[in-house]
Amino acid sequence: MADVDRATLDRRAASRYQQLESSRVRQLYRIVAQRLNVDELGAQRLKSLYFACGYWRILLITRLSLIERLRLIARFMRVDWNVVHGHRPVEIAHVTKALAARPGAPSEVVVEAGCWRGGSTAKFSIVCAMLGLRLQVYDSFEGVEPLDAVSTGEWNFGGQYACTEETVRQNVTQFGCIDVCDFHKGWFSQTLASRSIGRPVRLAYVDCDLAKGTLEALSGVMPTLAPDGCVFSQDFHIMPVRKMLLDPSTWATLRVAPPRIKPCSVYMVQLTWPGKAT
Question: d(Cα 6, Cα 11) in Å, to the nearest integer?
């Protein structure tokens, strides 16, 4: 990736996030939510009325029958209505489309690094069950890891988004497919970064709000990433995460070529390695 490309991606990502924060839709949502005095789940339900259209890409997945596509969207919307989460329908649609691009190979897995209350976990587990994949879920279940020092542009999320493993399991059992899930508790430095996944990774979804955690997740995923595998980062709007992903030295450290980075939303990007596929 040329320097100009990295600079352009960086500038556009920062600009899109700023535009979102000051948009009329965001301002209107805040006014309505305040007047209705909704709680956290109520606020999400309110947003879902607007953002649910982001699932339209799932209708283009020809490997699934129309009935399967419609049922998938309905199950995703049920999660949206009942489990507080930090993603948008358009992002889940991108991940689902990438997973359904081809049949899963024997022993391939999907990795989720950071699950909060299990909303995304429930959705990914449904897709994995449909496609014959297992879902490996990594989380501390203690919230975001506290930082000893906060770098420029980074917010200290330490302790935020904490949720017990029991609650996550309950949500996935009720709204997803718990039978295809394996849970790995601990900081990424103690799990993903310290031992091999041991199976080919079809796709990884990283949402941990930190450059440090993202790098640790990548260090565990990259050695066994399938030739046509991909990684989604949910934190591209966070400047230190973005800078780390755009830095060629990151990929030199991981001993892989810099990826092609495709924006999927204001927050999420897809990382692919076209030259790696065979």
Answer: 9
